[in-house]
Structure prediction request, 319 residues.
Amino acid sequence: MSQTWLVVTLVGAGTVAIKAIGPVLLGGRPLPESLSRVIELLAPALLGALVAWQTFGNGEALAIDERVIGVAVAAVAIWRKAPLLVVVIVATVTTALARAIL
Amino acid sequence: MAERTFRDGARAVGPLAVAVAGFGISFGVIARAVGFGWLAPIVMSATTFAGSAQFASVSVLGDGGTVAAAVAAALLLNARYAPIGISVAPYLTGSLWSRFVHAQLVVDESWAIAAEGEGRFSRSMLLGAGVVLYVSWVAGTTVGAIVGQGIGDPAAFGLDAAFAALFLGLLVPLLRDRRHVAAAALGAGIALALTPIAPAGVPIIAASAACLLGLKR
Prediction:
């Protein structure tokens, strides 16, 4: 098997297994009390990390570029209670404009 | 709140599906450019369905890295799907086989859209958003791998900022009290502190440890 197909097969099998492990082993049942207190904070913790990483991450380095302007304008839209569709479009258009101008 | 449906999930993720398709195209183009051919990128998107991990493994191989390094990079990036899968497990009811299949539709965006706060998730939102994202990702990859040479870089259209904006928009309603704010701030801080010094994937999985704040009364 070529290197390419070996990577495709191993990454695919590994990812399918990682994604399946929780729902297959624990599916359809409530989590134990202590675990559910931890899991309740998983969404804010991971979303905080993803916002930071998608805004400032550039491969294995940090960068300040036009995305910061787009996300800042999106933050204003969120604060003004704009719908999610508007938030995403505002961020995209602002970032594209900033790249075209700067 | 009214029960949210599969269609609500599909609709909520609509704007993002455009960005996901754009990155699917660029994945197809990049993978083909480093010698993946046209079929392997499509098969990878259909089976792995996790953008950042796919980009990572292709770039490692493209830079002359080993198979082991490419696989390790991708699986580290996807390690976060173990806790994410546990978080949605109580809501994925049904047979073993359907839970296995539905689990594959869990990606950052579908999971975030399905979050209802206090650790609850909407199964139908998760599946509706997941199906739309899956189709966009695989279709985008197909276009990129077969006819994509010459289509521009999605970053030029600002599509790379769409993900941060979406995640921020989904995070804010979840910040119900100080514990949630603390977990989000700690997660962001861990991710930023580790990004320059740790291999790709480690900052995000390490940031998920911020949820251990939940053990404190």
